[in-house]
Amino acid sequence: MLRVGAAYLAVAWLLIQVAQTVLPAFGLGATAVRIVIVVLVIGLLPVLVFAWAFEITPAGLKRESEVDRSQSITPQTGRKLDRVIMGVLALALGYFAIDKFVLAPQREQAATEAARAEGRTESLVKSYGDKSIAVLPFVNMSSDKDQEYFSDGISEELLNLLAKIPKLRVISRSSAFSYKGKDMKLAQVAKELDVAHILEGSVRKNGNKVRITAQLIEARSDTHLWSNTWDRELDDIFAVQDEIAAAVVEQLKITLLGEAPKAKEVNPEAYSLFLQGRQLRRQNTREGFEQAITLFQQALAIDPNYAAAWEQLAAVYSSQAGFGMRPLAEGVRLAREAAAKALAIDPDFAPAHGGLGQIAMAFDGDLAAAARHYEHALALEPGNTDIIGGAATVAANLNRLDTAIEFQQYENIHDPLATRGHANLGLFYLGAGRLDEAIASFRRTLRLAPNFSSAHAAIGGALLMKGDAQAGLTETQKEPEEVWRLLGMTMVYHTLGRKADSDAEFAELTKKYSADAAYNIAYVLAWRNERDRAFAWLDKAVTQQDPGLSEIAYQPLFANLRDDPRWLPFLRKIGKAPEQLAAIKFDVKVPD
Looking at the structure, do residues 84 and 142 belong to the same domain, yes or no? Predict the structure, then answer.
C-alpha cells in the first residue's frame, strides 16, 4: 500500500507539472490546473483503500483476505512499483534540470524585459499625474449614417486641440479610436490607456444645423465632472470646440502659461469636405486616395487659403508615391508643392514642416533637410506625437539613438496601442545594443498585433546577437511574412552551421525578392561574413533607391563590415559616414 501511495504521488506530481505547462497553451488558466489538483487529491484515498483491500494475482484481482499468502506475488508487484517510482523520479529530475537551466532563465529574462519596459513607461506616465485624457470617437447621431466622418472628425479636432495644452497627456488618435464601436466600460478603457479622464460625446448634423453633446468623466470612479449640449449653426463649430477645450482645462485644474489654444476658423463647407477627405485618405487604398484628392481640391476651391487641406493633399501624394500608385518623381513633386503652399499660407503650420521633413528623409535621402524641417516643426508644436515619431526616426537615422529612444518612448506613452511605435522602439534598442529591451518592445508589439510583420524575425535576430541561435530559430519560424522569415532563417541556419539549409533559404530569398530587398539581402550576407557579395548588394540597393539604406548607420547586422576598408567610403558615398551625420544639426528635446 505504501508503494502504491508513493507511486500515485509521484505520478500525480508529474501530471500537475504537465497540466501547468500544457493547459495555458489551450487558453485554460489557473482554474483548470486547480481542478486537476483537486481530482488527484481526492483520488489518493480511494487508491490507498483499494491497494490495502485488494491484490493483483495471476488469476486476476482478488480481495487480500482471499489470497493464499504462499501464492502471493506481492514481492514481484512491489518490485514493479519500485521501478515505476524510480522512472517517475528520473522524469522529475529531468524536468527539474530543464526547468532550472532552460525554462526558468527564459521566464526570468522575459519577466525582466517586461519589467524594464513597464517601469520606464510607468515613470513617464506618472510624471503627468492625473492630467491625462483620452478623447473617444464621438457617436454619430445623424439620420444619415454617411455623416460618421463628421463626428469622427470633430473628435479628432478636439483631440488635436487638447494636445496643444502643455502638461496634459492626450492619447493619440490611433489608440483612442481603436475603441470605436466596442462596448467596453470606461474604467477598462482608462486602465488600458492609463488615463485618468475620458471625453466622450455625440454629434447630430442636419444640413447646416449641428447638435454636439460632450461629457468629461473621471474614469476610475466613473464620475461625471462636466457635460454640456450645443445647438449651433455649422459655422459656429469652432467656437464649440474652444468651449469644450476650455472646460477640460478648468475641470482638470490645468495652469496655462499663456492663452488656451483656439481652433482655426475656416469656411464650414470646406471644413466638412476636409474631414471627409482625411477619413478617406486613411483607408490607404487607391480608390480612397483618389476620392480624397477630389475632396481636398473641392475644399480648396472654396477656401484656397486652407493650409490644413494643402497639407493633407501633400500627404496623399506622398502616400501614392510610396505605395507605387503614382510615378515616384511626380508624386514627390506634387507632395512638395502642396506642402510648400500650406507653408506659404501659414509659415507656422507644424504638420506641413513635418511633411516636408518626411519627404526629405524618405524620398530625397537628405537627412540635413529632414532634420531642419522636424526641428522647426517641434519648435512650433512640441507635443504633436506624429511629429515626435518622425523626429525619432530622423534621430535614429543620424545614429543618435539615445535621442531616438527618448522621443519614441514619449510617443508610445501618448499612443500606447500603436503597434508601429513599439516596433520602432525595438529597432532603436537593437541599434543601441540593448537587446533585452528590444525583445520586450517587439513582444509588446505582438501582444497588440499577433501577426505584425517582421516582429518575430526581429526577435529572432536579437536572440542571434545574444548568442542563442536555437531560440532564434524557434522564434524566426513563427514569422508570418515570407520575406522576413527567409531573411531570418538564412542567418539562423548559417549560425547553427547548417550551410546547405542557409544556402537554400538564401536562394529562395533572392529568387523572389531581389528587386525589393537588396538592402536586407546585403545585411544577411554581412552576417554570413560574405563581404564582397554584401557590398555588391549594397550597390544594388543604391541603384534601386532602397529606403532601407536610411537606417544603415545604426543597423547592427552590418557589424562584420565595419572593419572593412570599403565600409567608410561606401557610407561617405551615400552621405551616411559618422562625420557626415555628426555635422548635421538636430537640436531637439522631448517636451517636459
Answer: no
